[in-house]
Amino acid sequence: MNDQDTIDAALFAARPQRLTNCTTCQGRGHVDRPYVLKHTPMLVGAPTSAITATVVGTAFIFEATREASEIATRAKRDVAFYFMDKLVIARPNDDPDALARRWWQEFYGKSYEESVNDR
């Protein structure tokens, strides 16, 4: 890992721990709610100036774009990651929900709302 990769990884590590109420104990305890983006030192197809990330676990595009947009805005640099084999680039101050909706339209060929209505 080079110096820039170390700096980029620190951006991910600096995120606060996210807790949610435990559904098993009906809110008397808390469980960690992990982030879906993890730093990766290299990503094929990503701009060389972008912070690169990998989606881990089961993720929803809206959650991934929110995390990427937050990091991009904080770092003032693009964040790139693949979601279902499609490159996504979040830029500083991007609207994460609009970014997710564009991805949805391009990937599925219809809007998120149309997909929900089809269910």
Stretches with pLDDT under 50, minimum 5 residues: none
Elements, N to C (H/E): HEEEEHEEHH
**How many domains, in number, for the residues?**
1
**Count of helices?**
4
Give the total of beta strands.
Answer: 6
Helices, strands, pairings?
Layout: H1 3-13, E1 19-21, E2 30-32, E3 37-39, E4 51-55, H2 61-75, E5 79-83, E6 86-90, H3 96-108, H4 112-118
Parallel strand pairs: 4-5
Antiparallel strand pairs: 1-2, 3-4, 5-6
Helix pairs in contact: 2-3
Overview of this protein structure:
The structure is a single chain. The mean pLDDT is 87. This protein has helices at residues 3-13, 61-75, 96-108, 112-118; strands at 19-21, 30-32, 37-39, 51-55, 79-83, 86-90. The strands form two sheets. Strands 3-4-5-6 form a four-stranded mixed beta sheet. The protein has one domain. β1 and β2 form a beta hairpin. α2 (61-75) packs across α3. The longest helix has 15 residues, at 61-75. The chain has 119 residues and is an alpha+beta fold.
Give me a quick take on this structure.
The protein is α+β, with helices and mostly antiparallel strands. It has 4 helices and 6 strands.
Which key terms come to mind for this protein?
single chain, 119 residues, alpha+beta, 4-stranded mixed beta sheet, two-stranded antiparallel sheet, 4 helices, 6 strands, 20% strand
